[in-house]
Specification:
This protein is an alpha/beta fold. Helix content is about 30%, strand content about 25%. The N and C termini lie far apart (about 55 Å).
Length: about 575
């Protein structure tokens, strides 16, 4: 069944049709509205009737409540096609409270951040934490825990672990299949996951940065249907030409819209949508969520009708959310009242035909999580006291080059030590889940810091501790300070903690208010920049992705520096 009528009783269904026929008044009518028709990519005008939380009619209607929309524009609620809520740094109820104000009425989340820390318990934590919130939170089940064989996570998730979630109402498929080599080489455990998803008729999201040619064909043939890692139009068109839907990402560290703006026109737009992937809560508060991507797309030349459709209907179509994403009879009445089309300025947000207010958010943005999961989520640090001697290297190691605005890295040669003048800093990853004592060591160029150290337990995707610094002594202090606060982010210099942001939930999320999260993020960023960190990068999000060994060229894990293409590990 395509429409919302499936949830109605027989009598409600008949009454709904009476409303559509104009025989009885609708509960709410938006009079004289300018609205987006996503089916013809045009803005039209007319009255919009709403009944039982559903669009009942377009044309000329009267209602028990009527609101004059003269001069305003109505568009469908925005949908983030791929997000890791944990990466906002706040728990789901705080994220929802902020992002829904920007017009986001649904997201598709992949909880692989917390799953890498807590395994199946992490997935259950996020399912419970998002149940009943005023935003619809759909799930893709993590497929790569750990991300690949080079990573050392706090848990391992197999196909059998994933299958228990398929069939749940809010689960739409298998999350980004990051282990491209595992697919192409037909690693049995990887194929077990993709084959199981296919047999259960689940979607499979992709993750294939810079993958091309025969390797790409083989990867897609395994059942992959989307990709959010395109950094160039050429890459996106090759994938789209093989049937892949493209998710255009604008996150905190990775911003691909400018390079992919050519997709925001037909015939490509119909197979494209928007996502944030990883976006800090302060950026959502200050700049926006999906609305910020729409705003930027229009400034870059996109037709507003196309941009708003990509932000709503396209994601709904891809994920099989057949009851939303359009202003049309029978669709869920999730919509936004815009004050300005070109600026994507949100005036009001409606969910199920009811306006979202600050008061309603206070009442509805409350998660209910079992005590056992709460306890487990606050006990995720198991590592020894770290000394500077433990962070020393015995020979030359690769230098990882950072690229502003991108997740991929470059090769910048070798180094046997820190060299501030040449912007060569030491980077380490310390295992923190199972007290293995494993520490990977390497060097980074492009970070800019002149003194001190930074440490964080947000280290994609295994979320061990990653630290960068101008001396091993400062790095050891930062890591130990991070352990003391139960995870999060720490800036250390001059013999003390300059700033910190505690993230006690799995070392990933704060339970404090968004205002406090914003304050902490501002303080730690300021502290990092005061140490000389490159202002063209986000010093925390960029650092965290340096540990993800499924994106070329070089990464660092607890096992050492990984050459992603060859699989070689430097220790």
């Amino acid at each position: 069944m395509r429409y919302q009528q499936k949830s109605m009783t027989r009598d409600e269904y008949e009454y709904f049709l009476q409303v559509t026929a104009g025989e009885v008044k609708a509960e709410l009518v938006l009079k004289n509205a300018n609205f987006l028709d996503v089916f013809t990519n045009r803005f039209k005008s007319g009255d919009i009737a709403i009944s039982s939380g559903t669009f009942a009619g377009i044309g000329k209607y009267s209602g028990a409540q009527e609101i004059d929309m003269t001069g305003k524009t109505i568009v469908p609620g925005f949908i983030d096609a791929h997000i890791h809520i944990e990466s906002t740094t706040v728990v789901p109820e705080i994220f929802v409270k902020e992002s829904i104000k920007h017009g986001t009425t649904a997201v598709i989340t992949d909880p692989h951040e917390i799953a890498n820390v807590m395994g199946v318990d992490g997935i259950n934590y996020m399912l419970e934490a998002t149940e009943g919130l005023p935003m619809d939170v759909f799930f893709m089940i993590p497929s790569c825990v750990p991300s690949c064989k080079y990573d050392e996570a706090g848990a391992v998730i197999m196909a059998s672990d994933m299958e228990q979630f398929y069939g749940k109402d809010r689960v739409k498929g298998m999350a980004e299949l990051m282990d491209v080599d595992g697919v192409v080489s037909r690693n049995p455990s990887v194929l077990d996951k993709s084959y199981s998803a296919i047999k259960k008729d689940m979607l499979i999201d992709g993750h294939a940065p810079m993958v091309t040619g025969r390797k790409l064909v083989s990867y897609i043939a395994a059942g992959v249907l989307s990709d959010h890692e395109c950094a160039s139009l050429e890459e996106a068109l090759e994938k789209m030409g093989l049937g892949v839907w493209i998710m255009i990402r604008e996150g905190t560290a990775a911003q691909n819209l400018a390079d992919l703006i050519g997709l925001c026109q037909e015939p490509y737009a119909s197979r494209s949508m928007f996502c944030t992937d990883d976006r800090h809560i302060n950026h959502i508060m200050d700049e926006g969520h999906i609305d910020a991507i729409i705003r930027k797309a229009i400034k870059l030349g996109a037709d507003p009708a196309i941009a708003y459709k990509m932000a709503s209907y396209n994601a709904a179509a891809y994920f099989g959310l057949r009851d939303r994403g359009a202003i049309s009879p029978g669709f869920l009445a999730d919509f936004i009242v815009l004050e300005d089309i070109n600026d994507a300025r949100v005036g009001a947000v409606y969910k199920n035909g009811i306006e979202i207010t600050d008061e309603s958010l206070k009442l509805k943005c409350k998660s209910h999580i079992t005590d056992d999961l709460i306890e487990k989520s606050h006990d995720t640090f198991h590592l020894p006291f770290i000394t500077e001697e433990m962070l020393g290297n015995k020979g030359k190691l690769p230098i990882i080059g950072l690229v502003p605005g991108q997740l991929y890295t470059t090769r910048e040669g070798l180094s046997d030590g820190i060299n501030i003048d040449q912007d060569i800093l030491k980077v380490v990853v310390v295992e923190r889940h199972n007290n293995t004592g494993h520490i990977g060591i390497g060097f980074v160029n492009g970070y800019g810091m002149k003194k001190g150290a930074i440490a964080t337990s947000v280290a994609h995707d295994a979320h061990n501790i990653i630290a960068i610094g101008a001396s091993e002594k400062d790095m050891a202090h930062a890591i130990n300070a991070l352990k003391d606060i139960g995870g999060g982010m720490v800036v250390w210099a001059d013999g003390k903690v300059k700033a910190s942001y505690p993230l006690p939930v799995a070392g990933l999320m704060s339970e404090e208010s968004s205002d406090m999260a914003n304050k902490h993020l501002e303080e730690i960023h300021l502290a990092a920049y005061e140490l000389g960190a490159n202002k063209d990068i986000d010093p925390f999000m960029t650092l965290s992705f340096t540990a993800l060994p499924v994106i070329p060229e070089l990464r660092i894990t607890t096992k050492g520096v990984v050459d992603v293409a060859s699989g070689k590990i430097f220790k």
